[in-house]
Each structure stands twice: as C-alpha cells, then as structure tokens.
Specification:
Elements (H helix, E strand, L loop, with lengths): L1 E4 L5 H9 L16 H12 L3 E7 L5 E11 L2 H4 L1 E10 L8 H15 L4 E4 L6 H9 L15
Parallel strand pairs: 4-5
Antiparallel strand pairs: 1-2, 2-3, 3-4
Length: 151
C-alpha cells in the first residue's frame, strides 16, 4: 500500500466511493464523464499549498481510501496552524481492515511535520461508529460543532 497525492485519474474512483456512501449517495453525482464541478474543485485544491488531497492505493494503483487535509492559519494560539481532516472515505467493501487508521495516521504525521498545533475533524452524527473509531485513534470530543446550509 502507498499513500500519494490524488491525480485526476483517481477522481472517478473517489467520487464513486462517495456516491455509494450512506450520506454521499444523497449529495454526489457519479456519472461518466464526471460533472465538470468535480474537475474544477480538484484543480483548485491541487493548486493550493494549504491542501493535501491523498489516496491510499494498492500495488495495482487502485484507490482503496482517500482524505483531504487542510491547513488553517490562525491568529490565536500564538499564530498557530490547525490541520483539518475532511472527506475521509474507505471503499465500502474494505471497511474494518485498517485502511482508515492508516490514512489518519498519515494525516497526523503530516500535520506534525508542518508544525500544526492541533488536528481536528468533524463526524456526522448519523455515524456513531465513526466517532468511536476516531476516539480509539486519540481524538476527543472537545467542542460542539454547528453548521448552516447555504444552498
């Protein structure tokens, strides 16, 4: 297994994983060809040095899992940097095999290497098992998050 930056050729596999997800199936548009919005978003993320968009691949370069790690500069914490984990997905048929743990371990190491003082994430309340997973990896529920849909 290897963790590497996402390439355009990986987008179909990533979006397919999200379209098969219990939450993603209500918001993603997996088609061939992919909607142009995915390609535009990929180019924006790829061009911004504050983003790490990675995949975990097998020896055949098949995508097994993916995540996005974003670095946020703050004025607080003495001008510190926080790392934000987003869009963690493991292929549905591979759950429970340690691929998510491997990816999160990579994200923690990457955040440390870039001087982040905190790594944080949110998890959907409809996924109680995910919260347990992150707690086992050392995360704790220190804040109550809130969101507002703008569309």
């Amino acid at each position: 297994m290897q963790i590497r930056e996402v390439e355009e050729k990986d987008l179909h596999q990533i979006i397919k994983m999200w379209a098969e997800d219990m939450i993603g199936k209500h918001r993603e548009a997996y088609q061939n060809p992919l909607p142009e919005a995915y390609l535009r978003a990929f180019e924006i993320i790829k061009s911004d040095p504050n983003h790490e968009l990675v995949v975990l691949v097998d020896e055949n370069d098949e995508v097994l899992a993916s995540l996005q790690l974003t670095f946020l500069q703050y004025l607080t914490n003495i001008g510190g940097v926080k790392a934000l984990v987003e869009n963690v997905i493991v292929r549905k048929d591979l759950h429970g095999r340690g691929f998510g743990k491997h990816l999160i371990g990579w994200a923690i190491d990457c955040a440390r290497s870039k001087g982040a003082h905190t790594i944080q994430l949110t998890t959907n309340k409809t996924r109680p098992g995910t919260k347990t997973f992150y707690k086992r990896l050392g995360f704790h529920a220190s804040h109550e998050g809130m969101k507002m849909s703008l569309i």
